[in-house]
């Protein structure tokens, strides 16, 4: 009888830049993946595969999980390399592609762009994508469902890699292809995640009208979803992305509502937020909210600086001027929110929260 493997294949967000932590979850005798969780894939292994030994690929994968969560990335790389070798010896190409995708995520955390790209190239090759130029023309009907699921998630990782290297246009292509595959699969979670990423890439490219169109599509899509957990995860990602593209008021309202600070009946996506379940864990949302408060404070400070420069003699520098009250309030809110994110049961990424604080 075919054995089911549940794969938690996720997209990775930088802790310091986007305020989202790596999150791992474990399923019974399943695989683990690195990142902020977007979707769960159910993949059937070939019949007749024996149970792995205690020191087999699954154990190495779990060791990589532990190392990654504690930010011991070199150890995570070593563990994932062992997992890749293990599934390669077993001839399980689909699992090898998954392990290589996670290896790429770990290399990205270390800033090893070439190694991250090499791992992705190998993963795509195992998924019968020998040339990246073929991706946009990939016909979903020609691939099996498990292969499509892994390919879409791998393209999400590919988009992140290009964005981190300052190439949003190439990242946008990967996310668009991933969104097309998710749409074919009927995967709402994956589709929302890829479209949220597209929003950031379009903004970075200065394609503001297209970015606004994607934002409107996302907001409309969220109104049609009835899964409270998915709504919360999607809104958390959208709140973070709205901060990166400059929509600070919407970012603040969404994230404050998710953590229970904001209870106003009006605001961005208020009707959707009313149906969202409280996110678990809360730490990542608090960290993201703290980053939004910090951005609001910086914006208030920059506005005050721009006003005060008017009429000032060019050789005068008023370095001792205190930030305006609005900025000070936001900075205080940021410090308090980082403190909450770094302590108690909410803490998932205490180091990032404490550094920001």
Description:
The chain has helices at 15-18, 57-69, 73-89, 93-110, 113-126, 145-164, 168-185, 188-204, 208-223, 228-244, 248-258, 270-273, 283-309, 325-342, 350-356, and strands at residues 4-11, 36-44. The protein has 357 residues and is mostly helical. It has two domains: 1-46 and 55-224, Alpha Horseshoe (Serine Threonine Protein Phosphatase 5, Tetratricopeptide repeat), CATH 1.25.40; 229-308 and 322-357, no CATH class. Helix 4 runs antiparallel to helix 5 (113-126) and helix 10 packs parallel to helix 13 (283-309). The longest helix has 27 residues, at 283-309. The model is unreliable at 1-54 (pLDDT under 50).
Distance between the termini: 53 Å
The helix fraction, in percent, is: 55-70%
Sheet with the most strands, sense and barrel status: 2 strands, antiparallel
Strand content: under 5%
Name the CATH architecture of the largest domain. Answer: Alpha Horseshoe
CATH topology of the largest domain: the name is Serine Threonine Protein Phosphatase 5, Tetratricopeptide repeat
Instruction: Assign the CATH superfamily of the largest domain.
Output: Tetratricopeptide repeat domain
User: In which order are the strands of the major sheet placed?
Assistant: 1-2
Tally of helical runs: 15
